[in-house]
Specification:
By secondary structure, the chain is mostly helical. Helix content is 67%, strand content 0%.
Amino acid sequence: MTEESPGNLRQRQAAATRQQLLDAACQVFEEKGYQATSVGAITDRAATAHGTFYLYFKNKEDAFCQVMASVIIGDLANAIHATPGDGARERIEQTIRSFLGAYSLHTGLWRAVLEGALQSPRVQEIWLELRRQIIHRLAEALEGECAEGHVRPIDPLMSAHALASMNEWFAFTHLVLGEPPGAEIDANNDHAIGVLVDLWYHALYGEVLTDPGPPPEPTAPGAAAL
C-alpha cells in the first residue's frame, strides 16, 4: 500500500477543517441570524481555535457569503426546474413547489440573507445575482410564451420580477414569520402552493378585457326601490 505524502495529508486535513468551519457557520447563522453571529460563536461550534477561522475566511461576511454559495445557491440551482412538455399549470406548480421546497430547508438562513443584504453590499450583490439568474430564465420562458400567443401581452422581464418577488416575500412571511396567523403550514406546502399557482396561472393566462366599455350610469337615490 502506497503511503500518503505529507503534502496530500495536509491538504486533506485543511479541506476537512474548512468544511468543519463552514458547517458550523451554517448552523450558527441558521440559529442566530447574520448580525448576532460572531466569529467566536462559529469557532466554538466547530471546536477550533479562534485564529484557525482566519486561515480560511477573511471575516464573518466572507464566511456567510461562502455559506450562501454552498447551501442557498446550491439548493436553488438544483431545485428551480420544470419538466418540458408539461401543461402550463403543471410547469408553474413544479417551479413554485421546487422553490418553496428549497426555501423551507433553511428558513433561518433565508432570514439571515435578508438581514445580511441590508448590512453588507457583498451579501446583497450575491443574492441579487442569484435572483437575476432565476428571473432571467423565467423572463425568457415568458417571452417565448408571448411570442407563441400562449400568454397575453405582458412585459416579460418586469412580470418575471413581480412574480418571483411574490414567491420570495410570501415564502418569507409565511414560512419564516408564520403569516397569516393561524394559517396551516403543512409539510409539503400544498395549500400555499395551490394559492400561488392559481395567482400565477390567472395572471399569465387569464383573460383581460381590453375595452371594458363606459362605466354604468349612476343610480338616483331611491331608484332601486322603484
